[in-house]
Write a structure and sequence with these properties.
The complex is a heterodimer of chains A (68) and B (171). Chain A contains 2 helices and no strands. Chain A has 68 residues and is mainly alpha-helical. Chain A has one domain. By secondary structure, chain B is mostly helical. Chain B has one domain. The longest helix of chain B is centred in the N-terminal third of the chain and has 48 residues. Classes of the chains: A mainly alpha (68), B mainly alpha (171). The interface between A and B is medium-sized, with 14 and 12 residues.
């Protein structure tokens, strides 16, 4: 996972685009849609990294609880 | 290579959708203005030339730019050949004409109710009804301009940004 840096750039790109969408929607007075767009961006990124996070938790478990 | 072509296609498609929506927002005030001048010409035709509706509609269609002129032209032609009442023809043509323009439901209702009064009254009453329809259209025009001012830029940039987001997701 650490060897592959492209996912980092992808997440950074998603972050930038979602931030721009948020700013535009907020400027036009659509606060609720802006919040929703940010939430959707966050969920997308979470889906991207969920494998890595579960790996990390397994590692932590195996280190500290002598299991799995 | 194929990946980049696909990305470019997707991006241009969503940008186009955004521009198309913005064009619709921009066209609405323009067409309401055309509709207003159509009613004013109709008023002049009825009050001063005292023309029958067939001729009045035909003259209106000659003086206006494209989308709105079709409606009056078709109404005039239908009145010549069909035996239905004026309101039937007016309503049928409004329904046929509406998908072609960027106007909303409110303008449709205003125009439909105006058609019901057309040809039913004397000059003074008819003028009052035309003025009433013009006042309603003026109100719609203000609302449409407000919408155009607020949302047309937003829709354009949102289309582009959505395309960019999808491209990044799929790469």
């Amino acid at each position: 996972m650490l060897g592959d840096a492209s996912i980092l750039f992808q997440i950074a790109g998603i972050g930038i685009v979602v931030a721009m969408i948020h700013t535009i929607l907020k400027q036009m007075g659509k606060e609720e849609y802006a919040q929703f767009a940010s939430l959707v961006g966050f969920i997308i990124v979470l889906i991207f990294v969920i494998d890595g996070i579960s790996d990390l938790f397994q590692q932590i478990k195996s280190v500290f609880l002598f299991r799995g | 290579m194929m990946k980049w072509i696909g990305a470019l296609l997707l991006l241009s498609a969503t940008t186009w959708v955004g521009f198309e929506l913005a064009r619709k927002l921009n066209d609405r005030p323009k067409q309401i203005r055309q509709l207003k001048s159509a009613l004013q010409i109709l008023e002049a035709e009825i009050l001063y030339s005292q023309a029958p509706i067939i001729e009045a509609c035909y003259n209106v269609s000659k003086q206006l730019p494209h989308p709105v002129s079709w409606f009056f032209k078709v109404v005039s032609e239908d009145l010549k050949v069909k035996t239905d009442s004026l309101y039937e023809i007016w309503k049928k043509n409004i329904d046929a004409f509406w998908p072609l323009v960027a106007l909303g439901e409110n303008e449709k209702e205003i125009l439909r109710q105006f058609g019901r009064t057309l040809g039913q009254h004397d000059f003074v009453q008819q003028q009052k009804h035309i003025q009433l329809a013009l006042t309603h259209l003026e109100r719609e025009l203000e609302e449409a301009q407000d919408y155009q001012y607020r949302y047309s830029k937003m829709v354009k940039s949102l289309g582009f940004l959505t395309g960019l987001l999808v491209v990044i997701l799929l790469i």
